[in-house]
Design a protein that fits this description.
With about 350 residues, the protein is of the alpha/beta class. It folds into two domains: about 260 residues, Aldolase class I (TIM Barrel, Alpha-Beta Barrel); about 60 residues, no CATH class. Helix content is about 35%, strand content about 20%. The protein is built from 13 helices and twelve strands. The strands form three sheets. The chain has a seven-stranded parallel β-sheet. α7 links the parallel β5 and β6. The protein is globular and about 70 Å long.
Length: about 350
Amino acid sequence: MKKRHFTIPVFIPEAACPNRCVFCNQHSISGATNAPSVEEVTGKIEAYLQTIPSGTEVEVGFFGGNFTGIPEEMQQAYLQSVQQYISAGRISCIRISTRPDYINPEVLMLLKKYHVTTIELGAQSLDDEVLRLSGRGHTAEDVRSASLLIRTFGFELGLQMMVGLPGDTLDKSMLTAKEIIRLGASSTRIYPTLVIKGTELEHLYLQNKYQPLSLEGAINIVAGLADLFVSHKVKILRIGLHPSEGLLDGSSLVAGPFHVAFGEMVYSRIWHQRLFHFLNNPFEDEFGRPGVFHITVAPGMKNAVTGYKAANKQMLLLRYEKMVVSESNKYKDFECCVDIC
């Protein structure tokens, strides 16, 4: 049986970012104000390790900023703080997130030395106009060259993307996803763009120079992207921002498609689209009675198939007497078996 996996998250907000993107206010997004001390990092690791079930494969993830852009001695201090746990077999490896324009052979050799196995790049888009309007400060070619270098050095590559950025369109988002696949990313994260207080995007929004996606529009776009990624074996680590306190109570959110169950709604939409055609081909027994719709899916997919607030189930019950959902290790991702009787 495959081991359970858990990542201990350590947020380093806006550390070493050379500029602030129009959408970014990481204190509001992550809830973190300052970069943690080494002592705080080890304290967090200890606290998590006390609660993680034995037999779980554990890694530490340094997220939220430009890890490879902070001073080298600080990078080493953070990475060194994890080494005792790796040596003791309590943690298997480290992952970091960083900018594509802060990757070079020297950086990668340092990361190798400290058991970093996965590097996630905040690509956000592979369209140069979208990157420019978003104030990213790097180009699509920077993402491509950094991705090639990361894979050449033997790291796992993760590429994060956003939808609904200034200048973005459905076609551009789809082209970004296809490029992420082509570049050999093994994982991705998909975030809808939100208008957060204290950002340049807030000013653009208040001046009617930027219009965020609607919740429905964002769900439809991301559902299409997620379906594409899964079909090409790119693991989706997260859909939608982690809901910090400022997002949950609305104190940081100005506008945009935020929902605490955004990821669940996306997966529900994917299954809605896959199940819809069964409405046109209902099964009836010899007495004209509607049949039972029995679907078997991969472990963890039962709620998504049933649908957010049971929407998919309610849809099928318009034509079928009953819907039964089972899970089986025989299936993965969006694979399924339908039996109507």
